[in-house]
C-alpha cells in the first residue's frame, strides 16, 4: 500500500470513532453559553464593585488606589478559597469564559496548578508548578506593557 492511502478498515474505524466522539461530546448552544458567561462575568464585576464601594464607605480615609488594592486582594483570596473547596470548578462549568476574569481566573489558575501537584512536595510540586502558569503570564505582561509604552512614547514625540 502506498504511503498516504488509508485502508478501508482504517476509514471505517475513523468514521466510527468520529461518530462516537460526536455522540458523547456535550452539546452547547452558543447563545446560551454567551449569556451564561456574560451573567457570571457581570455578576463577578458587580460584586467586586460593591465590595470596593463597601471598603470605601467603611474606610473613607483610604485612597482610591488602596481601595482597589484591598478589593483585588479579597478577590484573589476568595478565588483561591473557591478553587481549594471546589466551588470555582462549578462556577466555571456554568459560566465558561465569564468565570475567567483576569484577576479571579489568574488566581484560580495559580491555585489549581499548586493543588494538582501538591503530592510532589512543597518545593518541586506546589511552588514550581504554580509558577509554570504565572511565569509566562508575567513575562508577556511585562513585554507587551513595555511595547505599548514605547509606542505611546513615540506617538507623544511625534505629536509634540
Describe the structure.
The protein is mainly alpha-helical. The chain has a domain at 30-116. The chain is 81% helix and 0% strand. It contains 6 helices and no strands. The mean pLDDT is 86.
**What does the average pLDDT come to?**
86
> Judging from the principal axes of the Cα atoms, what is the shape?
extended
Q: End-to-end span in angstroms?
A: 71 Å
How large is the radius of gyration? 23 Å
- What is the element string, with H for helices and E for strands? HHHHHH
Low-confidence stretches: none
Structural class: mainly alpha
Given the structure, what is the number of helices?
6
Structure summary, number of beta strands: 0
The biggest beta sheet reads: none
Q: Strand content of the residues, in percent?
A: under 5%
Provide the helix percentage. Answer: over 70%
Sum up the structure in keywords.
160 residues; mainly alpha; 6 helices
Could you give a short description of this structure?
By secondary structure, the protein is mainly α. The chain has a domain at 30-116.
Topology:
Layout: H1 8-24, H2 30-58, H3 64-85, H4 87-95, H5 102-116, H6 122-159
Helix pairs in contact: 2-3, 3-5, 5-6
Amino acid at each position: 500500500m502506498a504511503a498516504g492511502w488509508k485502508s478501508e478498515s482504517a476509514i471505517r474505524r475513523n468514521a466510527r470513532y468520529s461518530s462516537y466522539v460526536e455522540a458523547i461530546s456535550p452539546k452547547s448552544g452558543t447563545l446560551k453559553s454567551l449569556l451564561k458567561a456574560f451573567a457570571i462575568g457581570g455578576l463577578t464585576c458587580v460584586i467586586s464593585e460593591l465590595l470596593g464601594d463597601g471598603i470605601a464607605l467603611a474606610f473613607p480615609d483610604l485612597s482610591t488606589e488602596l481601595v482597589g488594592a484591598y478589593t483585588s486582594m479579597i478577590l484573589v483570596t476568595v478565588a483561591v478559597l473557591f478553587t481549594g473547596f471546589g466551588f470555582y470548578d462549578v462556577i466555571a462549568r456554568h459560566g465558561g469564559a465569564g468565570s475567567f476574569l483576569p484577576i479571579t481566573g489568574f488566581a484560580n489558575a495559580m491555585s489549581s496548578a499548586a493543588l494538582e501537584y501538591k503530592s510532589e512536595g512543597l518545593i518541586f510540586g506546589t511552588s514550581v508548578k504554580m509558577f509554570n502558569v504565572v511565569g509566562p503570564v508575567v513575562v508577556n505582561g511585562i513585554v507587551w506593557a513595555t511595547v505599548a509604552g514605547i509606542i505611546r512614547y513615540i506617538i507623544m514625540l511625534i505629536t509634540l
